[in-house]
């Protein structure tokens, strides 16, 4: 890089003195420290430097690209193909910010300009928690005083994980020239809103929840002048202390979190947000002007993270039994008559030993049971025996519900696990009793889409899921999205008709009818089965919570799940036993 722009090394002690001089307003002294840090600085300044125009810095790299190939106009209506070939020594324009390292403010890259109208925010990619959340101050505990304390401790932990996972997924939507309305009701609190027309939402297949998104809002092409700043502590012109390598324009950056998404009468959405991180202390006057347009990068939270956050927040409305489990409080024993386990071998399953029979007996006669053991000791088989016993008990004795809403739902046994693989192992055992126990394997819509894709479905789900998880062919007879298309389902003929036409683009009314038909078919299958097998995350999907209620809940490989993840099936149900 020495052949293309100035570059000097500064000792940490010199940098410390420079920062202190800037903090004290001694800019001349800070300038002298930098200028004398290297005797060869003047010679280096005579060399080629970055152009001052925000568009001129791409000439070398773009020249290399144009000699080899042209950039395709558009490969898809949803994606813009941006190509850039670089060689050692090529120049990229960057925008710097500061970050505290080892107790001192250190410069770090904030933006990398790839094209005149495209830049990458390195700031939130490297520090998603700083930009979209905050570091949790209190570690988790074994016991909690109340649900408020539980939420106060676990909510920041979940928010940190949500921010890191969403940014790491890189499943973003960038909208150029979006009109954003900012307002500042209180000092230090910046809020805003923007409108998304229905046409944009449909054309761009925006189906993620706009209430649960992170935002990176940028305003490029601003002139580097003190007059742009609303509150300037230093009266001296910024340009006076700008070096030759600094461009005369900059990009204003703010990071925010959506707080609400209201559907409008015309079908569009009004999205409200608040700013969580301002890399620049000064707020520009121009952002408050009417009809000001910004570049808005929308980063949706992942569905598993949303459901974990909801489980923690909704612990206040959970039943007393679930609250006692979460808070680490004493769980009362069941007063009702105990279930007598018949110690007999179930055909199609391995025989149990005395320790395993004892574990089954404890699970049947206690409201809360933890079965622990090394790998390969038959814990999953014990779980299948427990499910079999619960099924026999439920068929003989119906549950009395206090809430009238629960009476309308199908009573089931919910068998969960932290991953699809853990649930599939149990499903293979229960597959042997598909006619008597009526188990149903419920996969997520991401996995269902791999077997039965529909238009734009790849835009709506995690790309990692699309690469990794698939439904097991061996479980097809008890898998919900396959049974929906079999003759026993009253909606199967209509669904198969849509499947034949799926290669055609389905938009508007046809797409809505298809999705509505799938919802009805899923509800039909759930109402005709007694054992539901799914991941912990999938247990809170709307079609499940509205159609069934779990009388007993089993979580296999629970130690492999995080606490909020294991809490999901408990909070959205009112179980008798766990």
TrEMBL record:
<protein>
    <recommendedName>
        <fullName>DNA2/NAM7 helicase helicase domain-containing protein</fullName>
    </recommendedName>
</protein>
<dbReference type="Pfam" id="PF13086">
    <property type="entry name" value="AAA_11"/>
</dbReference>
<feature type="domain" description="DNA2/NAM7 helicase helicase">
    <location>
        <begin position="352"/>
        <end position="573"/>
    </location>
</feature>
<dbReference type="InterPro" id="IPR027417">
    <property type="entry name" value="P-loop_NTPase"/>
</dbReference>
<dbReference type="GO" id="GO:0043139">
    <property type="term" value="F:5'-3' DNA helicase activity"/>
</dbReference>
<dbReference type="InterPro" id="IPR041677">
    <property type="entry name" value="DNA2/NAM7_AAA_11"/>
</dbReference>
<dbReference type="InterPro" id="IPR050534">
    <property type="entry name" value="Coronavir_polyprotein_1ab"/>
</dbReference>
């Amino acid at each position: 890089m020495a052949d293309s722009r100035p570059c000097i090394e500064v000792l940490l002690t010199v940098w410390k003195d420079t920062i202190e001089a800037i903090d004290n307003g001694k800019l001349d002294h800070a300038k002298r420290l930098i200028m004398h840090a290297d005797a060869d600085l003047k010679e280096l300044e005579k060399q080629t430097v970055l152009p001052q125009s925000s568009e001129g810095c791409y000439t070398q790299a773009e020249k290399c690209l144009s000699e080899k190939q042209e950039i395709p106009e558009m490969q898809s209506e949803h994606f813009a193909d941006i190509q850039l070939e670089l060689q050692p020594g090529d120049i990229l324009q960057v925008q710097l910010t500061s970050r505290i390292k080892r107790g001192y403010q250190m410069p770090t890259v904030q933006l990398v300009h790839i094209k005149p109208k495209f830049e990458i925010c390195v700031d939130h990619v490297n520090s998603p928690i700083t930009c979209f959340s905050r570091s949790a101050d209190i570690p988790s505990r074994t016991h909690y005083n109340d649900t408020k304390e539980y939420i106060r401790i676990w909510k920041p932990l979940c928010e940190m994980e949500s921010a890191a996972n969403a940014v790491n997924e890189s499943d973003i939507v960038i909208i150029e020239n979006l009109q954003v309305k900012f307002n500042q009701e209180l000092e230090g609190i910046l809020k805003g809103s923007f409108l998304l027309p229905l046409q944009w939402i449909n054309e761009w297949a925006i189906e993620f929840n706009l209430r649960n998104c992170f935002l990176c809002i940028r305003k490029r092409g601003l002139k580097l002048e003190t007059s742009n700043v609303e509150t300037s502590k230093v009266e001296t012109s910024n340009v006076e202390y700008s070096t030759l390598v600094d461009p005369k324009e900059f990009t204003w950056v703010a990071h925010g979190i959506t707080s609400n998404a209201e559907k409008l009468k015309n079908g569009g959405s009004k999205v409200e947000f608040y700013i969580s991180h301002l890399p620049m202390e000064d707020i520009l006057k121009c952002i408050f002007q009417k009809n000001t347009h910004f570049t808005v990068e929308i980063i949706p939270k992942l569905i598993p993270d949303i459901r974990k956050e909801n489980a923690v927040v909704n612990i206040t409305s959970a039943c007393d039994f679930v609250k006692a489990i979460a808070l680490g409080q004493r769980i009362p024993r069941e007063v009702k008559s105990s279930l007598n386990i018949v110690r007999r071998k179930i055909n199609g399953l391995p025989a149990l030993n005395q320790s395993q029979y004892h574990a089954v007996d404890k699970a049947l006669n206690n409201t809360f049971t933890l079965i622990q053991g090394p790998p390969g000791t038959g814990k999953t088989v014990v779980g299948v025996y427990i499910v079999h016993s619960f099924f026999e008990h439920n068929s003989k004795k119906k549950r009395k519900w206090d809430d009238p809403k629960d009476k309308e739902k199908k009573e089931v046994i919910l068998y969960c696990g932290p991953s699809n693989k853990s649930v599939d192992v149990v499903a293979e055992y229960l597959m042997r009793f598909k006619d008597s126990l009526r188990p149903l394997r419920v996969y997520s819509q991401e996995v269902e889409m791999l077997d039965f894709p529909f238009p734009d479905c790849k835009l709506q789900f995690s790309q990692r899921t699309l690469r990794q998880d698939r439904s097991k062919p061996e479980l097809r007879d008890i898998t919900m999205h396959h049974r929906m298309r079999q003759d026993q389902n009253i909606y199967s003929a209509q669904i198969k008709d849509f499947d034949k036409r799926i290669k055609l683009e389905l938009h508007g009314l046809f797409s809505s009818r298809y999705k509505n038909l799938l919802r009805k078919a899923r509800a039909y299958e759930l109402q005709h089965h007694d054992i539901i097998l799914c991941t912990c995350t999938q247990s809170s999907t709307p079609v499940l919570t509205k159609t069934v209620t779990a009388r007993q809940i089993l979580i296999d490989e629970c130690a492999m799940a995080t606490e909020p993840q294991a809490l999901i099936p408990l909070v959205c149900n009112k179980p008798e036993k766990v």
